[in-house]
Write a structure and sequence with these properties.
Elements: E1 4-9, H1 26-43, E2 46-52, E3 81-85, H2 96-102, E4 107-113, H3 115-128, E5 132-141, E6 145-147, E7 150-152, H4 154-168, E8 171-173, H5 175-179
Parallel strand pairs: 1-2, 1-4, 2-3, 4-5, 5-8
Antiparallel strand pairs: 6-7
Helix pairs in contact: 3-4
Length: 180
């Protein structure tokens, strides 16, 4: 039995160009995530899907809307676990750790959105919990951010977060690296 799991974080319609929080490069990230998922299924690795739903009165990730549905290209296969979360960290107040531990999972591979929020929080938590953590950088996406009146382009946001994760929290690879 494989001791590796793919954690597919928040690849939801809300992040598509038609959604309320469109991300730069989301179509490419979802396509790469689909390749990672297919390789994982072929290898017998566990695939766990994470869906975000807002608990607060915000206009996105509203429970029961099309925006919270998983992007069809990365849809769960029959029998794959889908966990709903309400915080950036996929482990916080969810059954993710329990599901991994019940299967004896030691290695996690993280893909999804947004690089600067849920990918960062989930990857750091996974490492802190003792899992060997890999982040597939081209299977993740983010958006431009603003700070102090300055726009930070999504490519710079993504690079900053991937470099920070690679520094101390996990191995950062490409889809081709992982699936080779």
């Amino acid at each position: 039995m494989s001791k590796r799991a793919i954690i597919v974080v928040d690849l939801q319609n809300e992040y598509l160009p038609s959604g309320k929080l469109p991300l730069v490069g989301i179509d490419e990230a979802a396509a790469n995530a689909a390749k990672v998922i297919e390789a994982a299924r072929s290898a017998g690795d566990k695939v766990i899907h994470i869906r975000h739903e807002s608990l607060t009165d915000v206009p996105f990730f509203v429970p029961g809307t099309e925006g919270v549905e998983i992007i069809p290209a990365v849809a769960p296969a029959e029998g794959e676990l889908v966990i709903t979360k309400n915080y950036p960290n996929s482990f916080r107040e969810t059954e993710l750790k329990q599901a991994l531990d019940e299967e004896g999972i030691q290695d996690v591979v993280v893909v999804g959105a947004m690089s600067h929020m849920c990918i960062d929080a989930t990857s750091r938590a996974a490492a802190d919990l003792g899992y060997s953590t890999t982040i597939v950088e081209d299977a993740c996406a983010t958006r431009d951010l603003e700070f102090n009146g300055k726009t930070v382009p999504s490519a710079q946001v993504h690079a900053a977060y991937m470099s920070a994760l690679a520094f101390a929290y996990g191995k950062v690879v490409t889809t081709d690296d992982l699936t080779a």
